[in-house]
Amino acid sequence: MSHSTVPRPRSEAKTPERAPGASDDATGTGPGGDKRTGRRTGGRRGGRTGSRTGKGAGKLSLRLRFRRDRTLILMTLPAVLLILVFNYIPILGNVVAFQDYDPYLSENGFVAIFQSPWVGVEQFERIFADSAFWHAVQNTFVLFFLQLVLFFPIPILLALLINSIVRPRIRAVAQAIMYLPHFFSWVLVVTVFMQIFGGAGVIAQTLRQHGYDGFDLMTNPEIFKYLVTVEMIWKDAGWGIIVFLAALSSVSNDLYEAAAMDGAGRWRRMWHITLPALRPVIALLLVLRVGDALTVGFEQLLLQRQAVGVDASDVLDTYVWWNGIRNQDFSYAAAAGLVKGVVGLALVLTANKVAHLMGEQGVYKK
Amino acid sequence: MSALADATARAAESADRRPTAPKPGRWAAPPRPVWEEEPAKAGLAGKGIALGFACFAILFPLWIVIVTSLQTKKTIDEAGGLVVVPEGITLIAYKELLSGGQVQTAALVSVGVTVVGTVFSMTVSVLCAYGLSRVGSLGHRWILMTLLATMFFGAGLIPTYLLVQALGLMDTYLALILPSAVSVFNILVLRAFFMGISPELIDSARIDGAGDLRILWQIVMPLSRAVLAVIALFYAVGYWSAWFNASIYLTDQDMMPLQNVMIQLVQKQERPVGLSAQINTGQLSPLAVQMAVMVMALLPVAVLSPFVQKHFKKGMLTGAVKG
Q1: How many cross-chain Cβ pairs, A to B, lie less than 8 Å apart?
Q2: Cross-chain Cβ contact A180/B322 below 8 Å
Q3: Which of A49, A200, A283, A304 keeps 20 to 30 A from A166, CA to CA?
Q4: What is the pTM for the complete model shown?
Q5: Is the complex ipTM more than 0.95?
């Protein structure tokens, strides 16, 4: 866009690995090249031409580069430290899955790890022999499937609906309302449902007051999986439309006009222009959702675990919580968490691979 | 003199902007492109119904909660519980809850954790995002990879719990803040936004002798108010909504934040400590008390998020371009 007007500042420092042209340095960082919707990644990777690396950045010695960048490195330090402590060190803590960890061996729980006996894969054998574990796996997949079928399409439909509204005010108000529940905590969402539909909720109470039978949707294991899905739709379907709206707003009006000239009606335009515009986003989100299949909602299920019973509500995450935090069977729970983590990681990586094969960006770049 | 000139210029400008006719209405439809056909009545009606239903499904439960919290015991009992049309507003439930006692303490704890946590998270994240936004600096790629990797695997609940325990954070408010203080996703959104700021601007500031901190504070941050607002909201909502960390890291009931107290009051049908007297003498409906706690939990979020709403799309889009 701007590489023709901006005389490519400092670009001789590094030759972009990519083909010169639209995605060269100026696209990402040039003054006019700030394309809000365009992919900037090309410019970023090829263009190590930020203000830091001027001419001949590669020639600077490590020491000079450090002296030049020490403020920047210092700035990242607090965040990096927090991530190292709370995300990386616990990874090492997963060794308790191969132990018979006993927190009382030492004053400090982490020191106790070094004193606990190793038991190899015994914990894993226990897990795979436990029917409750397989029950949690089953529940996880049932919920995942329901979310895929019932939850996934709704944001797309809502986005099409919102996109078809031409009055800006109505549009803004509708969007504000739909985004709202996303910001409520799960405690609040579950509590609202309980107060409205629960056995002691206002509807059941009012029915009873007027001589009808009350009902209790919150403690019924049969419908629990649908209840969770509905709660999820209430909370997050509105938020999910953002990414689709973004995709729709980048569709050029010329396409619609040309189609209309060719005699395409409202529905044909939707079918041949609007939906194809959404297709990459839908495919990408679908792939990523499948990659995240083992995570079907933790807080939401934990909050309703007691009301509806373990059989109906236990998924992998809550299973780990129950055995570890509640029953203090740390090694067993860590092993279960490790199984979930490893399978989950494999799924995420596979999903990203598929996303890349489709020519999408995925969570990380190739 | 110049102030006067400014004022006149401003007055003239605002006079220009003032429409001569009454506004065509901000609710009115903008002109249609010539090629687009007029919508059919049935289609319009269908759209209206669908949209109305979606909004109703979201707002109706909230309406019930808010209305019930404002009713006296008498009205609630007469209606049998479901009050749709309010009859006389009373703030008795809120007065009782905020006159000291468990709920008031919990609300203060929640506000404190949210404010301190958000300030801390924002400071750390903005600094880190700026540090990473100057592409090509030493170690930039390595640090980025370190952060990105955490988006793929978590350490797991049990090791994290053991770590927090080992660090001696149990039963401290730090346990509610530190473990989830930085979100890599938020850092990436900020970073992407910072990178969109013209490097020429930053270079010229550097030539004028500004250091990195000064550039961040006086140039980058004022230019990124929109995304800063969005990210601050995300962090604040995160802290305000959190209950799980408190439930596993805190044992002292008096330290519990609002969400945890709400679980006890509503889901386990307990009564707030110190309020039993009013409830037992029949002045206060337990239902109204529960609903009032829920309103206290939803109010800050419901009030704040619409203000930031117009920036969401941009923020999310910037975040979608990662790497």
Answers
A1: 365
A2: no
A3: A283
A4: 0.84
A5: no
